[in-house]
C-alpha cells in the first residue's frame, strides 16, 4: 500500500489527481499557517512577525523537514498522472523544471519582461497554465500503450513503425449455406476398415 502512495510508479486518473492535490494542498497550507502562528510572537503586526520569524532557526529546521516531504509527494503524484496521460514522466518533469529555471533567469536578467517582482514571464505563465490544465483535463491513455514504462502489453508489444508490422491475414470469405450442410452418411462396407 505504501508503495502505491509513496512510489513513483503506477497511474493516477484525473479525478483522483485533483482530489489528492486538493487535500494535500490544504494540508500543507494549514501546516504552514500553524507553523507561522505558532512561531510568531503574539501582539506583533504581520510585517514585524514575518521579520522576527525570518531569522528563526526552528522555522528553518521545520522547513528543511517539511519541504522534502512536500516535494516527494508532489513529484510522485505528478509522475503518476503524467504516466496516466501517456507521457514519459522523467522527460516531462525535467523539461518543465528546466523551462521554469530559464523563465526565472530571463525574468531576472530582463526585468521589463517580468510580470512582477520575483515572478516569471508571460511565456512561463502560459507554460504553467498548459501543464496544470493538462494534468487536470487531459484524458487517460489506454492501458498498455506506453513502451517506456515497463508494463506488460496485453496484445504483445506495439511496434511504432508500421512498415515493420506483419501484414494481417485476410478473413476467409463467407461460404454458402450448402457448403456448411453436413455430408451425407455413407453405408459401411462389409469388410470394415480393410474393405475394398
Automatic annotation (TrEMBL):
Keyword line: Membrane, Transmembrane, Transmembrane helix
Membrane in keyword set: yes
InterPro entries to which the protein is assigned, alphabetical: DUF805 (IPR008523)
Residue span of region Disordered: 146-196
Biased composition (Basic and acidic residues): 158-171
Low complexity biased stretches: 172-188
Residue spans crossing the bilayer: 17-38, 58-78, 90-114, 120-138
Protein name per its UniProtKB record: DUF805 domain-containing protein
Organism: Sphingomonas oligophenolica
